[in-house]
Every structure is written in C-alpha cells, then in structure tokens.
Amino acid sequence: MAAPEFEVPQFKEQIEIPKIREGSMSHVKSFVSPQPTQEFLGYPWELGEDWKERALFKMGDLLKKYRSLRVFMDACVHCGACTDKCHYYLGSADPKNMPVARQELMRKVYRRYFTLPGKIAPWLVGAEELTKETLEDWYSYYHQCSECRRCSVFCPYGIDTAEITMAGREILNYAGMGQKYSNEILTKVQKIGNNLGLPGPALEDTLAGLEEDIEADTGVPVKLPMDVKGAEILLVTPSADFFSEPHVESLIGYAKVFHAAGASWTLSSYASEAGNFGLFNGNYETMRKVALRIRDAALELGVKRIIVGECGHAWRVAYSFWNTLTGIGFDGKDPFSIELQQQLDHRYPQPMHICEYTWDLIQQGRLKLDPSANDDKIITYHDSCNVARASRMGDEPGGQFTIPRNIIKAVANNFHDMAAETIGEATFCCGGGGGVLTDDLIELRVKGAYPRMNALNNVVQEENVNFMATICAICKAQFTKVLPYYGFDRSMVGGVHQLVSAAIKLD
Amino acid sequence: MPTVNIAGKDIEVDEEGYLTNLADWNEEVAAYLAKEEKVEMTDSHWEVVNFLREYYNEYQIAPAIRVLTKAIAKKLGPDKGNNKYLYELFPYGPAKQACKIAGLPKPTGCI
C-alpha cells in the first residue's frame, strides 16, 4: 500500500498543546470486518434494521455487567484535566480525540436512554438520540484510542477511558460494525493458535532455522524446543517474535537466557501466542477463549511454570486477568483450574514475566554478561502502556519500571532516560496499541507517535541516544514503521532481550 | 469485493488491493500489483516474490523474516541476506508489500 499523504508533526523542545482543528481526523476510518470473520465471532456483519435496538441492548447489558462503566458514565465533571494528555490529541489536534470528548460520544447517548433527566428533558442535560451518524463517529473515534490509559492517570475521578473504548467497540461489534484488523486476528488465534496464523509446521521450520543461526553465530547449540511434555517452563510469547525484526532478536535472547540457566523449557504450537486481542475489543468471553488455550497447553504439557515474553497487553492479561479468566479465581470448583494450580510450582510467581526471570538470574550471578558488547549503543527505554499502567513486576512497587531498566544497565554501559513526564506511569503510548496497528490507520499511528518521538528526539540531541529498547511486540512493530517518518532509522528500536542476547556469554 | 481489470480479466481484490484468490496470480498480475505499489520489478524482486510463493505453497503462510533473509543470502550472497536489503527492494516493508505482489494474503498481528 503506497503511503497516504499527511502532515507529520514537527519537533519542539516542549510539546505544545495544539489549537483545535475540528474534524481533522474524521476521515480516518479502519476497514470494517467482513462477513466470515464476524460470523466466526458471533456478530452480524452489517447494520440490520434493528441495529439501534441491538446497540442499546448491548449498552444496557454492559452497564449492568460492569458497574465501573456506569460510574465512568456518571462521574465525569468535564474538568478538562485529560484534554491534553492523549497522544492522539497532541498529534492530531482533533478535539474529538480529547479523552473527555471521545467519552462524550457515548455519554450523550447514555444520558438519553439510561438516566431519568435525559429521558424527560434531553435538551437540558446534553442527552442525544443514537443516530447512524453517532454510530459512525463511535466507529471512527473508538478506533482512534489505543486504550493506553494515560488520561486516567490524570483524571481526578480515575475514569478509565480504555474501558469506555472497549465497551464502545463491543457495542459496535454487536450492532454489526466490527474492525477488520482486530477481528481477523481474533479469528486466526482461535483457528490456528496465533495472531499471525503461523501453522505448526511453519513454526517448526522457523525455530529450526533460528537454532542454526544461533549456533553459527555463537558456536553453542542453543535450542528452541516446542511441544516438549514434562518441560518445567512454558514460554508464551507474541507470535511476532517468530516472524519479524526486531522481535526475533528478543526470542533469541530468551533462548540464550534459558540455555545459560540450564532450564528445561518449551514453546507450545497450540498456544503459540501470548497476545490477547479479546482485551482490546471488550468481549470477556472472547478474551477467555483465547486465554484458555494457554491453560490447556500448560495442562497438556504438564509444565510447572508459565513465563510470558515481551508483549505489553499479554502481560496485562496474564498478570491482571488470568486468575479470574482461567485460573482458580474463575470458579473455585472448576476441575481444570484446580488441576493447574496443583501442577504449578508456587515457589515462583505464576505467571512470571521474562524480565523478572532474567533479572533474578542476573542478581544471583548466574548469567555471564559482557556489557561492552553493547558499547555501540546509547540506549533509552520506552515504557509500554499496558506494562506501565496495568501490571507490575517483582515484589516492589514500580518493579515494572525498575526491572527492565536494571536489566539494560546490567547488559549495557550507556543508558539515558527520556524526560520524566514521558516515562514511567506517565509514559506516552507508541501510537499503535489497543488494536490500531494496521496500515489503514497509518495517519493516526504517525500522529499518535508524536509525543514519544519528540521525547526521543530530545535525548537523541542531548545524549546522542541511538537505540530505544522496549518490551512489547506492538511497540516494536509500530516504531519500526513510524520512526522513518520522523527522520530516524527503523532499526533504532528493539527489545530488552535483544540487548541481553548481545551481552550474554554462553558455554 | 472490488475487482481490478488486468489484461481483460476481472480479478477480485480486498480493500487494500491484496488478491482474494491465490489462484488468480500470474506474472502479469504481479506486474500490475507492483506498479500500484510503485515498485519497479527487477530480477532481485522476482527472486523474493518467487521464494515467497514457494514457501507459501508448502506452509500456508509467508516465511518469517529470518527464513527469508537466509534464503536470499544463500541465493544472492551474504551481503543481501538482511532486512535492509529487503527494505531497499520493498520500501513499505517486505512482509506486506512483497506478499501483496506475490499474491499472498496480508500477514496480520503485531508486525
């Protein structure tokens, strides 16, 4: 696809709040999901005559199911604290990309149909009918939110915009307007086992090739085992790690770490995906079905530990949702949940992040590292939204920020953080998260990357930074695509375990 | 589904211009798709496209980038077996642009 033409934002010393440009992003629309995909997921594929009833039914259903959603609908006082916190607003200037305005698209409909004043005197309370135009707006702007939750950090009421976006997408799906990108992925992961649609034999061929590469490179026969029954550790990682650059460099890094630790580990061809786009779409049942594949693989292989590779939202789902999705918290009487809990080794956190695993080994002195192997790099670190704001690592508050940085500092000599207001809990999204990492949204992705690119440019100018490490497959793919728009080389982004891979000395 | 007319034949493509039916592919179709992508096909481009098709026939998926670079290195020499070379040939990204010209479905996921 030849790239569409649009204006790329210019670097500034400090990000400026742009003057609003109404409707500047209203033309940006993701492709709508086709019939076979919608059918597979149990949704209609076009708006039928009853689209409005279906949309309002689903909205009522979600309001009942999720008390949080109703609170978020009621609690907003339009204080405006969120307006300049969204990377999509900062990069596009479209006022509907202010989180409060994006939410208002749903809130005005909520007032009309679900509150008494809105039913009686809609004109007094800003309540509006649900029209096709509003639904179209929902489709546009609920796919111009990456569910990164930066705005929520600054909201005095803690309103979680991501949850509203998720609800919006579920209502759209239920009415017959799904998004092609996310829904095709949700179909592939359930039919084939991963988001890419890599069948078992292709995966096997790819892993065999990587083993050859590592041995040619290091002289050491590092293995990438698959479907090994009785292995101690099951590694689930995003399928992009098998397929793409720079992702594959981190996969090689994990394999080298397991090798150095003498660990017994395996990948699974059935659960060859850590990512779970069910989260992005706000459908709990779909999210559960995708997560169950990992539980089933763990039971089938009889593993004692589950470790998750470099994937932001996978770690959120694993850390925050697995227990209630597929674990003991789902149903204390579920025999498979009980069996898995008995099978797992509870001396270790379950699940564990690959960074926690590697950092433990480094602290125990069990990895031989030569940080000078990364001396060609001056490194910064991009906190991925779902790791930063929706999970944790280790047993200290803020471990999700310190552990990846500690690893980098142990395997490399040159590290500089970006500006404090752009990292950690306040990190800016890469611009491609939450189900918008698709070519039809490239304009959104480039503009949304602006705050992160600006912060990166500042450390490039001041500290000569030439590498940005991160632990998310979406971030890696997104930056590989958008870095050149800002005048940077696409190979400037890579994984934390890519750096580990370069520094680790193997016997 | 939209169609495009290539050498007098209507061929079905998706919204992004990827062929809907693999069997519709031939060199003329590839040349047309390449032109749409503003890619000028040379022997080096054909090497990649042909390898993609062979691999797809065997595995029902495009090759991972490492598999592709290794195959190219074997055929054209180690200086060409890398991601940079592939981006020179297919500036919008080898995975997507080369797949499209080879008539394969678009790879999805976090790539």
The greatest inter-chain interface is formed by:
A-B, 43 and 29 residues
What is the rounded distance between the termini of chain B?
25 Å
**Basic shape of chain B:** globular
Mean pLDDT of chain B: 92
Q: Identify the quaternary structure here.
A: heterodimer
Beta-strand content of chain B? 5-15%
- Report strand % of chain A: 5-15%
Please give the alpha-carbon distance between the first and last residues of chain A: 46 Å
Number of helices of chain A: 24
Q: How many β strands of chain B by DSSP? A: 2
What does this protein structure show overall?
With 507 residues, chain A is mainly alpha-helical. Chain A is built from 24 helices and 9 strands. Chain A is globular, with a radius of gyration of 23 Å. Chain A has helices at residues 35-41, 51-65, 67-75, 87-92, 99-114, 116-120, 132-141, 150-154, 161-175, 180-191, 200-218, 240-243, 247-261, 278-281, 284-301, 312-325, 335-343, 354-363, 385-390, 399-411, 442-448, 450-463, 473-482, 496-503; strands at residues 233-236, 265-266, 305-308, 352-353, 368-369, 379-381, 467-470, 493-495, 504-505. Chain A folds into 3 domains: 35-178, Fumarate Reductase Iron-sulfur Protein, Chain B, domain 2 (Orthogonal Bundle), CATH 1.10.1060; 191-360, no CATH class; 368-503. In chain A, the strands form 3 sheets. Chain A has a 4-stranded parallel β-sheet with strand order 2-1-3-4. Chain A has a 3-stranded parallel β-sheet with strand order 6-7-8, sandwiched between helices. Chain B is mainly alpha-helical and 111 residues long. Chain B has helices at residues 27-36, 43-59, 65-76, 83-89, 94-101; strands at 3-6, 9-12. A two-stranded antiparallel ribbon of chain B has the order 1-2. The model of chain B has no long low-confidence stretch (mean pLDDT 92). The chains are: A mainly alpha (507), B mainly alpha (111). Chain A binds chain B through residues 1-3, 31, 180-181, 184-185, 188, 194-199, 201-202, 205-206, 209-210, 213, 238-240, 242-245, 247-248, 275, 311, 437, 439-440, 473-474, 476-477, 481, 490-491, and chain B through 15-17, 36-38, 59-61, 63-67, 70, 83-84, 87, 92-93, 95-97, 100, 107-111.
